[in-house]
Amino acid sequence: MVFSKFFGIDKTPIAGLEIGQDFIVFLKLIKEENGFAVDNLIQIPTPPNAVSGGNINDPEGIGEVVRSILDRNEIETIKVNLSLPSNVPFIRTVTLPDLPYEELKVIAKDEASNHIPFSISDANVDFVLLEESRRVESGNKRIIDVLIVAVPKSVAQKYVDVADAAKIKINTIEVATYSMIKGLANAGQIKPTKDIVVSVLIGFDTTDITLVSNGFPLFSHTAPVGKKNIIDTISTGLGLSQMETLNFIPQVAILVPGFATTNDPQIVKAATLVRMIYNTISTEISKAIQFYQSQKAEPPEILKIVLGGPGMCIKNAEKFIGNRLKIDTELADSFNNINVPPEQLENYDTPTLITSVGLALKGL
After folding, report:
1. How many angstroms separate the CA atoms of 113 and 94, rounded?
2. What number of other Cβ atoms are within 10 A of residue 100's Cβ?
């Protein structure tokens, strides 16, 4: 492997591996003449208590589950792209002089040390230049916004431990928000234009709201609400166990005008309960949009909102949010522009897989 890297060739297959609190998703794509196709797609429950609050508690247990997935599909060698939920790393956008890349690398790390809430020596730090933000201040001073991401080494080590237990290699670890943006770009839901699209990733613990233009994030906001709130609200309100709640959720649909209703009192009550969760998410989306627009002399228009992630598990949620905010709202079309037999997706809520698709695309 060392020699293949030395000569610039590394043919180890790459896949996306999303480790969530409720499910682990393994997705491998392959290149075809006209795009991409699904080679392997597997979703299995995460071992109980192996993940909580976005943090991995049992890397060995997760690694053993991943290894079993690979063994069943006769996959011996693989590199994976992993994602972190946004509540785990420290993320900050800073404005720096628009200098050559190598100089910015040094400055960005120094700047990170002024902001991150833990020692820079205990962190893995990376940064991304937000190309669309390049501008000139008074006095002809060129500046650019830089997205800094810092992860405690102890957190990163848990992912390394997962890989070791699974006998696989890590290609990259990135923030789930940006994996979703990559997936939406491939699906054609984010285009290389100045139009602003709001990417909303409703995760297990948090909801990430990111305003995107020309493929680059302009502004991000994270709200402490997600699928966990949906599960807990239904479980408490209907007196169901967590497993009963998870089995019941696919039946629930928010009641919106013009769409079929139900007379089942359990479903009606659950729909009323989860409506409050999505109402909170709607409010957070509105706050993020209003804050961003308030910073601009000429507030830009929002083209649309796109929803994805584990929390998109309730039918009609996109219609409810769209009606409330009066903005076109749609579900992440995760496998658009990817060749996959429809029957292979029958058991999946495809909007929930958008992060996995983004991870699988990275490196292809």
Report:
1. 12
2. 7
